[in-house]
Amino acid sequence: MLYNDLEFFNAVEVHETGDGGLSLHRYPLAVSEKMNSMEFDEQGNPTKEYIGGREVARETAAVEIRLVTKAPKIKVTLKPCRDSETVIAWGEFFQKRVRLFADQKTVVEIDRPARWDELFKDKDIGRYNPDLLRICLQDRTEFYGIEVEGEYSAPTKEDGAPLTMFAYGTSITHGSGSAFAEMEYIRVCAREIGADVTNKGVGGSCFCEPEITDFVCSQSFDIGYFEIGTNISTRPEFYMRERLVPFIDKVCTTFASKPLFFMLPFPAFCDVRGGEEWWPNGKATVAKVITETVSKYPNATLISGDELCDKSWYLLTDVLHPSPIGHIHIGMKLAEIIKSKI
User: Domains along the chain?
Assistant: First the structure.
């Protein structure tokens, strides 16, 4: 969204904080506050309602403050809810990481790289205009203003990537386990295929609520990617079908002319250690539900998580989320699949 000659990339709403700042939201509050899922015991009996995704959806991970400028110096004031960092990049080119501390306003000082205008004659500059300054946020970080020593403007279509990619998924797509944002598998993939990705991953959630389904179908993109099986695999089959089938049907019919990709669950502890019965049964069941539904649509492609994450050491010690090196390998393999279909 555009705001006062800036772009808040991947944000759809802003809200005043009460002390002069803005909180940037990847989901409309009216949507995120409806996130929920029933939890069940191993016999399939409901136990309680899970609403943890509502809080996670408010995080600004994958939100960027963007502007186009030739200014020599820029200052941006940020405040995170917990110790965090921001990544600064000019176009495709990483510049630095800046540490931020919980509940403290920090003025992040940014210098335009030396001799920047002389570097790009007849060179591959990647997806972006090198004058596109990208201030990449993590966790839940609030914005308190920007000072630019010179002119600046909001990016236009020509300043960004030639393709747009929409991603919805669990904590794996959200980026858990990556060393930092630019190494998340979905961003690695987007970079390789020449796309800008709006990442709507929600750690601990991704339950395809009706409100989420409607929100996803209101978006505009060239490529759709959906990693929807991991967390819901711990629910009974009837609940998987109740949530996943309407989501897949509506997305695939709404975007019938778009290439859509559905990721089956990645390997996890049951595949490496063995012994847990509930998870592997759920993994096979959710794969069956997604496969049966997606297979009806010619514009949709199924992708095997087991094939992309084919080494156990691609995982963290929790044997669930990809490690930093796993994110990179998975992202590169995913990009090859998507490139073969678009």
Answer: 2-24+62-158 (2.60.120.260), 161-339 (3.40.50.1110)
